[in-house]
Amino acid sequence: MYPNLYYVFKDFFGVEWNFLHFINSFGFFVAISFILSAFLLSYELKRKGKEGIFKPTDEKITAGKPASAGELISNFLIGFILGYKILWLFFSDNSAGINPQDYIFSSKGSVLGGLILGVLFSGMRWYEKNKEKSAKPETRTIRIWPHDRVGEITTIAAISGLVGAKIFDTFENWDSFVKDPSSILSASGLTFYGGLICAGVALWWYTRKHQINFLHFTDVLGPIMMMAYGVGRIGCQVSGDGDWGIYNAAFKTSPTGGISRATMVDFQEALTNNAPFFANHDSTHAFVPKPSWLNFLPDWFFGYDFPHNVNETGVRLADCTGQYCNHLPIPVFPTSLYEIIFCQILFGILWAIRKKIKIPGVLFGIYLIFNGLERFFIEKIRVNVKMNILGMHITQAELISFGLIILGIVLIIILRKNYKPAKIESR
Questions:
Q1: How far is CA 240 from CA 57, 194, 335, 382, in A?
Q2: Which of these, 167, 219, 230, 170, lies nearest to 371 by C-alpha position?
Q3: Which of 99, 151, 159, 261 is 20 to 30 A away from residue 32, measured at CA?
Q4: Which stretch of DSSP H or E encloses residue 286?
Q5: What is the mean pLDDT of each successive set of 10 residues along the chain, which is 427 residues long?
Q6: Contact 194, 173 (CB under 8 A)
Q7: CA 75 to CA 192: how far, in whole Å?
Q8: Residue 109, burial from CB neighbour count under 10 angstroms (0-12, 13-18, 19+)
């Protein structure tokens, strides 16, 4: 496992750059997923614009005005925050010894670095506006297409998604939140469906405000969200963030890391030998040996011990010193790996059929069904908090994923029933 990019560069290139401790593997792949999403979003919005589905809107701007005090102050504050946190990483000798997430939400930082970047950001903004300044500022009307708004759309989706993911995680782990309310400000604990729902509401509001057809917009988003989720799961797998499955008793771990095939007797011995760990951790398991027809796959595809995981969950690895020296005492199903594969396959299907489906919203309905099915079945072998609803013990994700399947089916039926082809003009 590679908790952050420091260990990637150390392992592959033999360099030890301390500031890389603060670029977490999970966050890195989430960032990659947003970049890819923005690219595909722009591509699809342009395509639908050329087909006449999306229309531009006119907005008025005032050209030639100097930078306002508000612009200069806001740019200074952004630069100060970035400089205060980021520049400290490059110049502090203590940067290797602290937890990245704790640091982000702490008061540690470089005041000098903050002032330097703050003045730089503010100065750049003043310079840009000063170049355009004129004696008589004029009001102009400009035409803005939906694909011109990709930056705003991505930012709104990112912020509302993270807020929603944190809120839903708090509800899912309410007892932990009650014990430590300040945990809501930490970087840990994110629930995908919370992010999906809150980002959906925020984007609905945004598209309505800017007169973008929401059903057509959701058809653009469906395949992209499936891709982004799969790429984000690469971060889960690479970092070992705890988003794994239940134990697979058909495999066992070695003290130095690595797995081999096992029996139920080996599983019981592992429970006994690691009793202190299992006193505080669930031991839910299944016995699933590797099928003979899948012998070409490595054993860790069916059971993995996540050595050096970012959460430092498990027992200590032999002959390992320093941070991130734990691995799981019994291999688990690497569910994040399964989701990487399934989501990219489903993305390929959605991408392939996107031009063939003419009824707006139907492609998004198919995405909801795919998403719900994938997550519902993966939850059967995942570790998650179960809720007691009417005597049924189900996870929050199972409940929402089942709801998404039903919603997708109902949405497709209603849209097909009420569909009336619209006349559109290509440009």
A1: 45, 21, 11, 14
A2: 230
A3: 99
A4: strand 285-286
A5: 89 87 82 89 95 90 81 88 70 48 59 89 89 78 91 84 74 59 46 75 93 95 93 91 92 94 96 94 93 95 95 92 93 96 97 95 97 90 72 75 93 92 58
A6: no
A7: 31
A8: buried
